Amino acid sequence: MNTQPAKAPVIAVVGPSGVGKDSLMDALLERVPGLVRQRRIITRAPELGGEDYDAVTEDRFATLCSAPGFALHWQAHGLRYAIPRDIDELRNRASGVLVNLSRKVLLEAEAAFGTLIVLSVTAAPEALAARLSARGREDSAEVERRLARASTPVPAGLSQVFDIDNSGQLEEAIKAAETALMPWLQPERA
């Protein structure tokens, strides 16, 4: 008989660029006891900023893929992204693990992690355009490409998906996310 407690859920925060995923995640980390964030590994130069991530070269990424050092990896926007295997360690000691994922890998993530909760964050197109322009990481052509992909839905067949509208005040999105997550979080662990 297995007496080990179930692993904490992986909470995938997904949505288009500029929708406020990182702001929502930061707020949830401050307000929800035992919640932790899994940093992504990205083939983006560290000086480009944005989220808190581990920057690696293409060669290092390929090495980690063959190790296998990743629980999940994908390519988007000309970059390679990964979730390291140590996410399992976080799941053993947290109430839930937040991770910024691509919508296109959600089915694979659910298969890899078992308990996957998806917070699908959306915002009005004008809010997205303003946020993308303000952050200054993309040129105008890339902003247009990202806006065109903004309405891409999450794949059908996922077990737990919650839509979070972040068009207005962040506080409203935070409350909606907290309400969605509370029934799913594990008790805090030592």
Automatic annotation (TrEMBL):
Presence of the UniProt keyword ATP-binding in the record = yes
Residues that coordinate or bind ATP: 15-22
Check the record and name the SMART domains matching this protein: GuKc
Going by the entry's taxonomy, the superkingdom of the source organism is recorded as Bacteria
| Keyword Nucleotide-binding found | yes
User: Can you supply a Gene Ontology BP term from the record?
Assistant: 5-phosphoribose 1-diphosphate biosynthetic process
Q: Which residues form a coiled coil?
A: none
Q: What sort of enzyme, by top EC class, is this?
A: transferase
The reaction(s) catalysed by this protein are:
alpha-D-ribose 1,5-bisphosphate + ATP = 5-phospho-alpha-D-ribose 1-diphosphate + ADP
Q: Name one GO molecular function term.
A: ATP binding
What UniProt keywords are attached to this protein's entry? ATP-binding, Nucleotide-binding, Transferase
Positions of the Guanylate kinase-like domain: 8-186
Name the EC number(s): 2.7.4.23
What Gene3D superfamilies would the database entry show?
P-loop containing nucleotide triphosphate hydrolases
| Cellular component aspect of the GO annotation | cytosol
The free-text function statement in the UniProt record for this protein reads: Catalyzes the phosphorylation of ribose 1,5-bisphosphate to 5-phospho-D-ribosyl alpha-1-diphosphate (PRPP).
The record's section on NCBIfam families has:
phosphon_PhnN
Which HAMAP family is this protein grouped with?
Answer: PhnN
Identify this protein by name: Ribose 1,5-bisphosphate phosphokinase PhnN
Source species: Phaeobacter inhibens
Could you read off the lineage of the organism from its UniProt record? Bacteria, Pseudomonadati, Pseudomonadota, Alphaproteobacteria, Rhodobacterales
The encoding gene is: phnN
